[in-house]
Write a structure and sequence with these properties.
8% helix, Porin, 272 residues, two-stranded antiparallel ribbon, single chain
Length: 272
Amino acid sequence: MRKLLLGSVALFALSAGSPAVAADMPVKARPAPPPAVYSWSGCYGGGFVGYGWGTSQHRSVDPRTFGLESDGIATLGRDITDSFDMSGALGGFNVGCQAQFGWWLIGIEGDGAVTNKDGQAFNLFIGHPHNPDRFFVSQTTERWMATARLRLGYAADKWLFFISGGGAWSGVEATVWDPLIPAVTAHHKRTLSGWTVGAGWEYALGYGWSWKSEFLYIDYGWSRFFDPAETCGPTCDAFLTREVNLKNYVFRTGLNWRFDWGKAPVAVMAKY
């Protein structure tokens, strides 16, 4: 009986002391969850403003192209103007879709803008052969521009750095006029096509909004204006026929808005 009593007391003492011992044991803290990384996947639209500058030049064409050897126009086949500067403001809209894979991103984007970019220069030679004592001015004016580009980027959480490239189009007007008699003016409008490359960055502001800035180089090469073979009105003749070169440098900045704004946020979990 005495042994049984001592055993019961010892068991009771051990049971009473075990919670205290357990309380004194160190508890391993749960690991913190990995931080969420912003996802750039999805479609978006936005607007931008900017400034464009560049160069243009007018040059004549070989008169034999049109069988005009007998006209005796010695100025054909030469540069009509030196290269001259163009500049102007622009503003427009863009839309695009993109997918993010880890830190990398691929997408497509299209945009359109209106602009007032233009420039002009005096012709290098005396005016029309039938009016040799008059000087003329040649002018290039850009009314609108659009691009369709592939976009490749590197995402660092809310920062996105990207390069882009693709096709470009512009509505361009070539004008020839007499500074002394403004009424003596000829115009020809054409849509030019070319190529573009660029680079930029974008930052996620929150609630679906992001701020973007980018630089584009656009090259349209040489395009023919005032060609009698085209329908450009009664002003087309051998004297006016020319090729016009146009190169653009564009900087623009604006805001984009994700179309899925208002839905549950999508986050990519960082891997360790």
